[in-house]
Protein backbone atom coordinates (compact mmCIF):
# COMPACT_ATOMS: atom_id res chain seq x y z
CA UNK A 1 0.00 0.00 0.00
CA UNK A 2 1.36 3.45 -0.82
CA UNK A 3 1.33 5.87 2.09
CA UNK A 4 0.18 9.43 1.66
CA UNK A 5 3.24 11.62 2.24
CA UNK A 6 2.13 15.20 2.48
CA UNK A 7 4.92 17.75 2.45
CA UNK A 8 4.71 20.98 4.43
CA UNK A 9 3.35 22.63 1.31
CA UNK A 10 0.40 20.28 1.18
CA UNK A 11 -3.03 21.39 2.29
CA UNK A 12 -4.21 20.62 5.76
CA UNK A 13 -5.30 17.10 6.64
CA UNK A 14 -8.62 16.34 8.26
CA UNK A 15 -8.61 14.59 11.61
CA UNK A 16 -9.68 11.35 9.91
CA UNK A 17 -6.92 11.59 7.28
CA UNK A 18 -4.27 12.26 9.90
CA UNK A 19 -5.46 9.32 12.04
CA UNK A 20 -5.52 7.08 9.00
CA UNK A 21 -1.99 8.12 8.09
CA UNK A 22 -0.73 7.44 11.62
CA UNK A 23 -2.44 4.11 12.04
CA UNK A 24 -1.32 2.75 8.68
CA UNK A 25 2.25 4.01 9.14
CA UNK A 26 2.96 2.79 12.66
CA UNK A 27 3.67 -0.84 13.51
CA UNK A 28 4.40 -2.57 16.83
CA UNK A 29 7.91 -2.41 18.28
CA UNK A 30 10.07 -5.48 17.78
CA UNK A 31 11.17 -7.09 21.01
CA UNK A 32 9.42 -8.99 23.74
CA UNK A 33 10.01 -10.39 27.19
CA UNK A 34 8.50 -12.96 29.53
CA UNK A 35 6.94 -11.58 32.68
CA UNK A 36 5.06 -12.99 35.67
CA UNK A 37 1.35 -12.44 35.16
CA UNK A 38 1.06 -9.83 37.94
CA UNK A 39 3.69 -7.77 36.10
CA UNK A 40 1.77 -8.19 32.86
CA UNK A 41 -0.98 -5.80 33.96
CA UNK A 42 -1.24 -3.08 31.29
CA UNK A 43 1.29 -4.85 29.06
CA UNK A 44 0.43 -6.18 25.61
CA UNK A 45 0.62 -9.88 24.75
CA UNK A 46 2.97 -10.54 21.85
CA UNK A 47 1.88 -14.18 21.65
CA UNK A 48 -1.53 -15.74 22.20
CA UNK A 49 -2.07 -17.72 25.38
CA UNK A 50 -3.36 -21.21 24.60
CA UNK A 51 -5.57 -22.95 27.16
CA UNK A 52 -3.56 -25.92 28.47
CA UNK A 53 -6.72 -27.70 29.66
CA UNK A 54 -10.49 -27.35 29.66
CA UNK A 55 -11.95 -24.68 31.95
CA UNK A 56 -13.83 -25.85 33.88
CA UNK A 57 -11.93 -29.11 33.89
CA UNK A 58 -15.03 -31.19 34.78
CA UNK A 59 -18.78 -30.94 34.40
CA UNK A 60 -19.80 -29.29 37.66
CA UNK A 61 -22.85 -28.03 39.43
CA UNK A 62 -23.82 -24.40 38.90
CA UNK A 63 -26.09 -24.43 41.98
CA UNK A 64 -26.57 -25.97 45.40
CA UNK A 65 -29.08 -28.81 44.94
CA UNK A 66 -29.40 -32.47 44.02
CA UNK A 67 -27.77 -34.44 41.22
CA UNK A 68 -30.34 -36.76 39.63
CA UNK A 69 -30.87 -39.01 36.62
CA UNK A 70 -33.31 -37.15 34.38
CA UNK A 71 -34.84 -40.41 33.17
CA UNK A 72 -35.97 -41.15 36.78
CA UNK A 73 -38.19 -38.06 36.96
CA UNK A 74 -41.92 -38.35 36.35
CA UNK A 75 -43.03 -36.03 33.58
CA UNK A 76 -46.28 -35.01 35.27
CA UNK A 77 -45.86 -35.29 39.03
CA UNK A 78 -43.47 -35.41 41.96
CA UNK A 79 -40.66 -37.97 42.14
CA UNK A 80 -39.17 -39.23 45.38
CA UNK A 81 -35.46 -40.17 45.23
CA UNK A 82 -33.19 -41.65 47.89
CA UNK A 83 -30.30 -39.32 48.85
CA UNK A 84 -27.17 -41.50 48.90
CA UNK A 85 -24.40 -38.97 49.58
CA UNK A 86 -23.02 -35.47 49.13
CA UNK A 87 -20.62 -33.95 46.59
CA UNK A 88 -18.71 -30.87 47.74
CA UNK A 89 -16.68 -28.43 45.67
CA UNK A 90 -13.23 -29.97 45.79
CA UNK A 91 -14.50 -33.26 47.27
CA UNK A 92 -16.33 -35.41 44.76
CA UNK A 93 -18.93 -38.11 45.47
CA UNK A 94 -17.06 -41.36 44.90
CA UNK A 95 -20.02 -43.61 44.05
CA UNK A 96 -22.37 -43.82 41.12
CA UNK A 97 -25.91 -42.44 41.16
CA UNK A 98 -28.17 -45.42 40.51
CA UNK A 99 -31.84 -45.66 39.51
CA UNK A 100 -34.10 -43.89 42.01
CA UNK A 101 -31.16 -42.20 43.74
CA UNK A 102 -29.94 -38.61 44.15
CA UNK A 103 -26.79 -37.00 45.56
CA UNK A 104 -26.75 -33.70 47.37
CA UNK A 105 -24.39 -31.30 45.50
CA UNK A 106 -22.79 -27.98 46.36
CA UNK A 107 -22.01 -25.30 43.77
CA UNK A 108 -18.80 -26.17 41.96
CA UNK A 109 -18.90 -29.86 42.90
CA UNK A 110 -18.01 -32.35 40.17
CA UNK A 111 -21.25 -33.80 38.82
CA UNK A 112 -21.52 -37.32 40.30
CA UNK A 113 -21.17 -40.22 37.89
CA UNK A 114 -24.50 -41.51 36.61
CA UNK A 115 -26.36 -38.20 37.12
CA UNK A 116 -27.05 -35.76 34.31
CA UNK A 117 -29.21 -33.01 35.82
CA UNK A 118 -29.08 -30.75 38.89
CA UNK A 119 -32.29 -29.91 40.72
CA UNK A 120 -31.83 -26.65 42.65
CA UNK A 121 -32.48 -26.98 46.37
CA UNK A 122 -35.13 -24.22 46.31
CA UNK A 123 -37.56 -26.41 44.35
CA UNK A 124 -36.72 -29.69 46.14
CA UNK A 125 -38.27 -30.87 49.42
CA UNK A 126 -36.33 -33.11 51.77
CA UNK A 127 -38.28 -35.76 53.68
CA UNK A 128 -35.99 -37.86 55.85
CA UNK A 129 -33.46 -39.57 53.61
CA UNK A 130 -35.49 -38.77 50.50
CA UNK A 131 -35.76 -35.75 48.26
CA UNK A 132 -39.02 -34.91 46.50
CA UNK A 133 -38.55 -33.38 43.07
CA UNK A 134 -41.45 -31.58 41.35
CA UNK A 135 -42.24 -32.05 37.65
CA UNK A 136 -40.97 -29.64 35.06
CA UNK A 137 -37.18 -30.22 35.26
CA UNK A 138 -35.08 -30.07 32.10
CA UNK A 139 -32.36 -32.53 31.13
CA UNK A 140 -28.88 -31.10 31.80
CA UNK A 141 -30.22 -28.22 33.88
CA UNK A 142 -27.84 -26.24 36.16
CA UNK A 143 -24.67 -27.89 34.88
CA UNK A 144 -21.51 -26.09 33.87
CA UNK A 145 -19.92 -28.19 31.16
CA UNK A 146 -16.21 -29.00 31.02
CA UNK A 147 -14.55 -26.60 28.58
CA UNK A 148 -17.56 -24.28 28.58
CA UNK A 149 -15.41 -21.31 29.60
CA UNK A 150 -12.34 -22.28 27.57
CA UNK A 151 -11.61 -25.34 25.50
CA UNK A 152 -8.17 -26.92 25.76
CA UNK A 153 -5.88 -25.99 22.84
CA UNK A 154 -7.92 -22.94 21.90
CA UNK A 155 -6.50 -19.38 22.28
CA UNK A 156 -7.60 -18.04 25.65
CA UNK A 157 -6.16 -14.58 24.97
CA UNK A 158 -5.05 -13.28 21.58
CA UNK A 159 -1.77 -11.57 20.75
CA UNK A 160 -2.32 -7.82 20.86
CA UNK A 161 -4.46 -8.01 24.00
CA UNK A 162 -3.64 -5.42 26.63
CA UNK A 163 -3.79 -7.34 29.88
CA UNK A 164 -6.49 -6.14 32.30
CA UNK A 165 -7.96 -7.40 35.56
CA UNK A 166 -10.18 -10.05 33.96
CA UNK A 167 -7.26 -11.28 31.86
CA UNK A 168 -5.07 -11.71 34.95
CA UNK A 169 -7.82 -13.78 36.56
CA UNK A 170 -8.28 -15.82 33.39
CA UNK A 171 -4.53 -16.49 33.13
CA UNK A 172 -4.49 -17.59 36.77
CA UNK A 173 -7.49 -19.88 36.17
CA UNK A 174 -5.41 -21.60 33.49
CA UNK A 175 -2.48 -22.02 35.84
CA UNK A 176 -0.39 -19.76 33.58
CA UNK A 177 2.37 -18.09 35.62
CA UNK A 178 4.18 -16.17 32.86
CA UNK A 179 3.25 -14.54 29.58
CA UNK A 180 5.15 -13.10 26.64
CA UNK A 181 4.62 -9.37 26.17
CA UNK A 182 5.96 -6.68 23.86
CA UNK A 183 8.84 -4.77 25.37
CA UNK A 184 7.85 -1.46 26.88
CA UNK A 185 7.69 1.49 24.54
CA UNK A 186 10.14 4.27 25.42
CA UNK A 187 8.77 7.77 25.07
CA UNK A 188 10.86 10.93 25.50
CA UNK A 189 9.00 14.19 26.01
CA UNK A 190 9.97 17.82 26.38
CA UNK A 191 8.53 21.30 26.50
CA UNK A 192 9.93 24.11 24.37
CA UNK A 193 9.75 27.85 24.88
CA UNK A 194 11.74 30.77 26.29
CA UNK A 195 8.79 31.74 28.47
CA UNK A 196 8.36 28.33 30.09
CA UNK A 197 9.53 28.01 33.69
CA UNK A 198 9.86 24.77 35.63
CA UNK A 199 8.07 24.48 38.94
CA UNK A 200 10.38 25.12 41.86
CA UNK A 201 11.78 28.23 40.14
CA UNK A 202 10.26 31.69 40.60
CA UNK A 203 8.27 33.02 37.64
CA UNK A 204 10.09 35.79 35.80
CA UNK A 205 8.22 38.52 33.93
CA UNK A 206 6.14 37.07 31.11
CA UNK A 207 6.90 33.49 32.14
CA UNK A 208 4.41 30.66 32.66
CA UNK A 209 4.93 27.42 34.47
CA UNK A 210 5.33 24.33 32.37
CA UNK A 211 2.11 22.36 32.55
CA UNK A 212 2.42 20.32 29.36
CA UNK A 213 5.12 18.07 30.74
CA UNK A 214 2.83 17.23 33.63
CA UNK A 215 -0.26 16.40 31.61
CA UNK A 216 1.93 14.31 29.31
CA UNK A 217 3.66 12.66 32.26
CA UNK A 218 0.25 11.69 33.65
CA UNK A 219 -1.18 10.44 30.38
CA UNK A 220 1.95 8.47 29.46
CA UNK A 221 2.23 6.94 32.91
CA UNK A 222 -1.35 5.72 32.65
CA UNK A 223 -0.44 4.14 29.33
CA UNK A 224 2.42 2.21 30.89
CA UNK A 225 5.31 3.35 28.71
CA UNK A 226 8.88 4.04 29.88
CA UNK A 227 9.32 7.78 30.27
CA UNK A 228 12.33 9.91 29.41
CA UNK A 229 11.64 13.43 30.73
CA UNK A 230 13.84 15.85 28.78
CA UNK A 231 12.73 18.96 30.68
CA UNK A 232 12.21 22.43 29.19
CA UNK A 233 14.27 23.40 26.14
CA UNK A 234 14.85 27.05 25.23
CA UNK A 235 13.82 28.30 21.78
CA UNK A 236 17.32 28.01 20.37
CA UNK A 237 17.84 25.80 17.33
CA UNK A 238 21.09 24.29 18.60
CA UNK A 239 19.54 23.39 21.98
CA UNK A 240 16.46 21.84 20.41
CA UNK A 241 18.61 19.94 17.94
CA UNK A 242 20.74 18.55 20.73
CA UNK A 243 17.63 17.54 22.68
CA UNK A 244 16.15 15.87 19.61
CA UNK A 245 19.32 13.90 18.95
CA UNK A 246 19.58 12.77 22.56
CA UNK A 247 15.89 11.84 22.74
CA UNK A 248 15.87 10.02 19.41
CA UNK A 249 18.94 8.01 20.39
CA UNK A 250 17.24 6.55 23.47
CA UNK A 251 13.51 6.51 22.73
CA UNK A 252 11.06 5.04 20.22
CA UNK A 253 8.93 8.16 20.28
CA UNK A 254 9.68 11.81 20.98
CA UNK A 255 6.86 14.14 21.99
CA UNK A 256 7.42 17.89 22.07
CA UNK A 257 5.06 20.70 22.90
CA UNK A 258 5.30 24.23 21.61
CA UNK A 259 7.14 25.76 18.72
CA UNK A 260 5.28 24.17 15.81
CA UNK A 261 3.30 27.16 14.59
CA UNK A 262 4.71 29.47 11.91
CA UNK A 263 6.06 32.10 14.31
CA UNK A 264 9.72 33.03 14.31
CA UNK A 265 10.69 30.65 17.07
CA UNK A 266 9.21 27.63 15.34
CA UNK A 267 12.25 25.48 14.83
CA UNK A 268 10.70 22.14 15.53
CA UNK A 269 9.34 21.55 12.07
CA UNK A 270 12.49 22.73 10.30
CA UNK A 271 14.66 20.57 12.51
CA UNK A 272 12.48 17.56 11.83
CA UNK A 273 12.86 18.12 8.13
CA UNK A 274 16.63 18.28 8.54
CA UNK A 275 17.10 15.42 11.02
CA UNK A 276 14.42 13.14 9.68
CA UNK A 277 11.20 13.62 7.86
CA UNK A 278 8.00 15.68 8.21
CA UNK A 279 4.87 13.69 7.38
CA UNK A 280 2.32 16.36 8.19
CA UNK A 281 2.00 19.44 10.30
CA UNK A 282 -1.26 21.21 9.49
CA UNK A 283 -4.62 19.84 10.56
CA UNK A 284 -8.23 20.93 10.20
CA UNK A 285 -8.82 20.83 13.92
CA UNK A 286 -9.49 23.21 16.79
CA UNK A 287 -7.76 23.39 19.11
CA UNK A 288 -4.50 21.87 17.92
CA UNK A 289 -4.17 23.06 14.35
CA UNK A 290 -0.40 22.86 14.03
CA UNK A 291 0.75 19.36 14.88
CA UNK A 292 3.85 17.89 13.34
CA UNK A 293 4.29 14.20 12.77
CA UNK A 294 7.34 12.59 11.31
CA UNK A 295 10.74 11.24 12.30
CA UNK A 296 13.94 12.39 13.89
CA UNK A 297 16.68 9.83 13.51
CA UNK A 298 15.13 6.45 14.29
CA UNK A 299 12.36 7.81 16.47
CA UNK A 300 8.83 8.89 15.61
CA UNK A 301 8.17 12.48 16.51
CA UNK A 302 4.94 14.13 17.55
CA UNK A 303 5.34 17.89 17.64
CA UNK A 304 2.32 19.01 19.63
CA UNK A 305 1.14 22.60 19.86
CA UNK A 306 2.10 24.67 22.90
CA UNK A 307 -1.31 25.55 24.26
CA UNK A 308 -2.07 23.26 27.17
CA UNK A 309 -5.58 22.35 26.02
CA UNK A 310 -4.42 21.84 22.44
CA UNK A 311 -1.78 19.43 23.79
CA UNK A 312 -4.43 17.32 25.45
CA UNK A 313 -6.76 17.41 22.43
CA UNK A 314 -4.03 16.33 20.03
CA UNK A 315 -2.77 13.72 22.48
CA UNK A 316 -6.30 12.27 22.75
CA UNK A 317 -7.14 12.39 19.06
CA UNK A 318 -3.80 11.28 17.59
CA UNK A 319 -1.09 10.30 20.02
CA UNK A 320 -2.73 7.82 22.37
CA UNK A 321 -3.87 5.43 19.64
CA UNK A 322 -0.54 5.82 17.83
CA UNK A 323 1.29 4.78 20.99
CA UNK A 324 -1.08 1.87 21.56
CA UNK A 325 -0.41 0.73 18.00
CA UNK A 326 3.37 0.93 18.62
CA UNK A 327 2.87 -0.98 21.89
CA UNK A 328 1.30 -3.79 19.87
CA UNK A 329 -2.34 -3.34 20.90
CA UNK A 330 -4.60 -4.98 18.32
CA UNK A 331 -7.39 -4.21 17.76
CA UNK A 332 -7.18 -0.66 19.03
CA UNK A 333 -9.77 0.15 21.67
CA UNK A 334 -13.16 1.33 20.47
CA UNK A 335 -13.66 5.06 21.04
CA UNK A 336 -17.42 5.29 21.30
CA UNK A 337 -19.23 8.59 20.99
CA UNK A 338 -22.75 9.35 22.20
CA UNK A 339 -25.37 11.82 21.07
CA UNK A 340 -26.80 14.05 23.77
CA UNK A 341 -28.51 17.44 23.94
CA UNK A 342 -26.20 20.35 24.67
CA UNK A 343 -27.29 23.09 27.09
CA UNK A 344 -25.09 25.82 25.65
CA UNK A 345 -24.87 27.43 22.24
CA UNK A 346 -21.47 26.97 20.55
CA UNK A 347 -20.25 29.17 17.73
CA UNK A 348 -18.56 27.35 14.88
CA UNK A 349 -17.89 27.71 11.18
CA UNK A 350 -17.99 24.66 8.94
CA UNK A 351 -14.61 23.43 7.69
CA UNK A 352 -12.74 21.91 10.58
CA UNK A 353 -13.43 19.50 13.40
CA UNK A 354 -13.69 21.14 16.79
CA UNK A 355 -13.39 19.65 20.26
CA UNK A 356 -14.95 21.91 22.87
CA UNK A 357 -14.67 20.53 26.40
CA UNK A 358 -17.88 19.40 28.00
CA UNK A 359 -19.31 18.11 31.20
CA UNK A 360 -21.64 15.19 30.65
CA UNK A 361 -24.19 15.01 33.47
CA UNK A 362 -27.34 13.12 34.33
CA UNK A 363 -30.57 15.09 34.12
CA UNK A 364 -33.70 13.16 35.11
CA UNK A 365 -33.86 10.06 32.94
CA UNK A 366 -31.23 11.08 30.43
CA UNK A 367 -27.80 12.57 29.92
CA UNK A 368 -26.97 16.09 28.80
CA UNK A 369 -23.78 17.99 28.21
CA UNK A 370 -22.80 21.56 29.06
CA UNK A 371 -19.67 23.49 28.20
CA UNK A 372 -16.95 23.21 30.83
CA UNK A 373 -15.90 26.75 31.63
CA UNK A 374 -13.82 29.10 29.48
CA UNK A 375 -13.07 27.43 26.16
CA UNK A 376 -9.77 29.21 25.41
CA UNK A 377 -7.18 26.73 24.19
CA UNK A 378 -4.82 27.87 26.94
CA UNK A 379 -7.35 27.43 29.74
CA UNK A 380 -6.51 24.11 31.37
CA UNK A 381 -9.27 24.50 33.91
CA UNK A 382 -11.77 23.70 31.14
CA UNK A 383 -10.08 20.30 30.81
CA UNK A 384 -9.93 19.75 34.56
CA UNK A 385 -13.65 20.46 34.91
CA UNK A 386 -14.64 18.52 31.81
CA UNK A 387 -15.25 14.79 31.50
CA UNK A 388 -15.71 14.64 27.74
CA UNK A 389 -14.99 16.27 24.42
CA UNK A 390 -17.89 17.60 22.42
CA UNK A 391 -17.10 16.51 18.86
CA UNK A 392 -18.30 18.94 16.21
CA UNK A 393 -17.64 17.56 12.74
CA UNK A 394 -16.21 19.46 9.80
CA UNK A 395 -19.60 20.02 8.17
CA UNK A 396 -21.24 21.33 11.30
CA UNK A 397 -22.05 25.01 11.83
CA UNK A 398 -22.99 26.67 15.10
CA UNK A 399 -24.82 24.72 17.78
CA UNK A 400 -27.97 26.23 19.29
CA UNK A 401 -28.86 25.58 22.93
CA UNK A 402 -30.70 22.25 23.06
CA UNK A 403 -29.22 20.87 19.82
CA UNK A 404 -27.91 17.33 19.82
CA UNK A 405 -24.12 16.94 19.81
CA UNK A 406 -21.70 14.04 19.84
CA UNK A 407 -19.59 13.53 22.97
CA UNK A 408 -16.49 11.42 23.54
CA UNK A 409 -15.68 10.51 27.15
CA UNK A 410 -12.20 11.12 28.54
CA UNK A 411 -12.20 7.61 30.04
CA UNK A 412 -9.48 5.55 28.45
CA UNK A 413 -7.82 8.61 26.90
CA UNK A 414 -5.94 10.11 29.84
P1 LIG B 1 3.75 27.94 21.05
O1 LIG B 1 3.05 26.86 20.28
O2 LIG B 1 5.12 27.56 21.45
O3 LIG B 1 3.68 29.23 20.31
O4 LIG B 1 2.91 28.10 22.40
C1 LIG B 1 1.55 28.51 22.39
C2 LIG B 1 1.11 28.96 23.77
O5 LIG B 1 1.20 27.87 24.67
C3 LIG B 1 1.95 30.06 24.37
O6 LIG B 1 1.09 30.95 25.06
C4 LIG B 1 2.84 29.35 25.34
O7 LIG B 1 3.24 30.16 26.41
C5 LIG B 1 1.97 28.22 25.81
N1 LIG B 1 2.79 27.10 26.19
C6 LIG B 1 3.72 26.50 25.41
N2 LIG B 1 4.32 25.48 26.05
C7 LIG B 1 3.75 25.44 27.28
C8 LIG B 1 3.97 24.61 28.42
N3 LIG B 1 4.87 23.61 28.40
N4 LIG B 1 3.21 24.82 29.53
C9 LIG B 1 2.30 25.82 29.53
N5 LIG B 1 2.06 26.63 28.50
C10 LIG B 1 2.78 26.46 27.37
MG1 LIG C 1 6.75 28.47 22.02
Give your account of this protein's structure.
Helix content is 19%, strand content 30%. The protein contains seven helices and 27 strands. It starts with 14 loop residues before the first helix and ends in a 5-residue tail after the last strand. The chain has four domains: 34-55 and 151-182, Molybdopterin biosynthesis moea protein, domain 2; 60-144, Molybdopterin biosynthesis moea protein, domain 3 (Molybdopterin biosynthesis moeA protein, domain 3), CATH 2.170.190.11; 184-327, MoaB/Mog-like domain (Molybdenum Cofactor Biosythetic Enzyme, Chain A), CATH 3.40.980; 338-409, Beta-clip. The radius of gyration is 30 Å and the shape is elongated. The protein is an alpha+beta fold and 414 residues long. Strand 24 and strand 25 (366-371) form a beta hairpin. It has helices at residues 15-25, 165-173, 212-223, 237-250, 268-275, 308-327, 380-385, and strands at residues 32-36, 49-50, 60-61, 65-68, 79-87, 101-105, 117-120, 125-127, 130-133, 143-144, 155-157, 178-182, 186-192, 196-197, 208-209, 226-233, 253-257, 276-282, 285-286, 290-296, 299-304, 338-341, 353-354, 357-363, 366-371, 388-391, 404-409. The strands form eight sheets. The chain has a six-stranded mixed β-sheet, with no helix packed on it. Strands 16-13-17-21-20-18 form a six-stranded mixed β-sheet, sandwiched between helices. The structure holds adenosine monophosphate and magnesium ion.
Give a quick rundown of the structure.
This protein is an alpha+beta fold. The chain has seven helices and 27 strands. The strands form eight sheets. A six-stranded mixed β-sheet has the order 7-4-6-5-9-8, with no helix packed on it. The chain has a six-stranded mixed β-sheet with strand order 16-13-17-21-20-18, sandwiched between helices. It has a five-stranded antiparallel β-sheet with strand order 22-27-26-24-25.
Amino acid sequence: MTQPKPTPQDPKLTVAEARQHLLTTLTPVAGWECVAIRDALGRVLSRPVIAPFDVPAHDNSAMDGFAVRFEDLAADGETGLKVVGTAYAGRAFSGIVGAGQAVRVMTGAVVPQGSDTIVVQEVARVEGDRVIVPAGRKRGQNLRRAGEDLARGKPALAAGKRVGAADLGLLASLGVAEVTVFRRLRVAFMSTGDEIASIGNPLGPGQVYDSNRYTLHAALTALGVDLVDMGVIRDRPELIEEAFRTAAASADVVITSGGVSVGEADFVRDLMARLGEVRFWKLDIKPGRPMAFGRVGDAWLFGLPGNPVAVMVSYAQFVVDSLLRLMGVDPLPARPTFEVPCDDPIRKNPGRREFPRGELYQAGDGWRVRLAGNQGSGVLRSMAEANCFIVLDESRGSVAAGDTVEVQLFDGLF
